[in-house]
Amino acid sequence: MSTSDATPTTESTLQGTWVLAATILASSMAFIDSTALNVTLPAIQSDLQASGVQLLWVVNGYLLMLAALILIGGSLGDRLGRKRVFMSGITIFMLGSLACGLSPTIGWLIGFRFVQGVGGALMIPGSLAIITAYFPIDRRGAAIGTWAAVTTLVTIAGPLLGGVLADAGLWRWVFLINLPLGIIALVILFARVPESRDETLGGGIDIPGAVLAALGLAGLTYGLLTAPAHGFSDPRVYIPLIGGALALVLFVALEARSSHPMLPLTLFRSPTFSGANLLTFFLYGALNVVSLFLSLNMVQAQGYSQTQAGLAVLPFSILLALLSRWAGRLVDRIGSRRPLVIGPFVTGLGFLLLGLVGETSGPTSYWTTFFPGVCLFGLGMSITVAPLTTTVMSAVANHYSGTASGVNNAVARTGSVLAIAILGALALLAFRANLDNLSNGIDLAPGQRQALLAQASQLGDAVVPADIQGQAAQAAGQAIQTAFIDTYQLVLWICAGLAGLSALMALWLIDGRLADT
Fold first, then answer.
1. pLDDT the model gives residue 202
2. What CATH number should be reported for the domain whose range is 1-200?
3. Taking Cα atoms as reference points, which of 226, 260, 264, 258 lies closest to residue 243?
């Protein structure tokens, strides 16, 4: 590895501080955006009159571009200059954030979330790449530890920040807060951080692969989320589904034949690498769905404020921060296989426990309803994260470690995109069926009943139509609440199954001999 402007091993401690400051500030934008957004979704849905499908697109638009382009982002940085690509990603992310914060309608917000995703795909791989390129091996661990500690604090604060802003009617600032962070990071990068690139790399950038991956994920997501409204026999549904599936098949075929693939399929010849990534796919898909529906349930069905919903998930982040180092040391003693079976299993038990929570009396009952499940799945993820990273990096040759990390990151985003699309579509169908069943006993005129069922597209933001009055209105409101809680429970139980499946992947595929060494 070589640098174009400076030699990292000879730079001063002060310059190292500038490098850390810039990478931490930029990473904080992505962490705040991802952790604070879920808590603000109820406010966004209410303020912009978004349907349930549109709300799911607010989350998935960003994740889709990350999943499709994040490997390209890392490769561009290595070839064109890590600082240059990192700064480009920050700029695009900032512009997307500004546009999201000023969006007048939900359609504009969804569109600009795609822009944020492009920026994130260029920005996110750059932080650790720049730190690794700048700091010599004897200082690198401390630098990465500092980066991890600060970004963990940001992750912990994100949901609370999002809740406070949303309750104050300032949800747009979840996006706009990125502007000062990004500007300061850009100034530091321009003035104080040296450029670096890998001069030994050959081959081109796998642009066709990135295009096929994006088209495939977009087609599947659009088809799945459109299906509840139109049915699978509608060409607006089956054409995107078939096209998306075909694009992904072509993507795999292209990667198998490419001389410079963005996804080196040869890595998956290792059963341990395959098992770790299957675990990631199922577990992180389930985790993102749970984070989304847990927040919606608390705010829209259980009477929590958005600040209270942010506080409610803090035990998860705190446990992750406190126990990750312990879990990392645990791998050194007993290997990674057992933690990667136990961790997802415990996470699944946490999801199951959260799924058992029905209608509650609100925040006053939090400690006996949601708190145990949040702690349990926080414990499970704490046991999982460090061993999973170790397994991914150890399952391939050293010169593939960066690629392996990028692949695992992309797999996590892909799992999230597909899980939100599939379980989001299922939730829309289940909510309508539940509402239909629960409204059978309410004295409603045919037109009133149809108007009530039409509200199913809003998920937890559904309201009683204005022409339903008196006791019927009260009963209809209760039916909406119960139908959404029943839907939430179904989704959480499926996520518990996905977590259990991820534990089976670890038990089946991860090399037991490596685990016991």
1. 62
2. 1.20.1250.20
3. 226
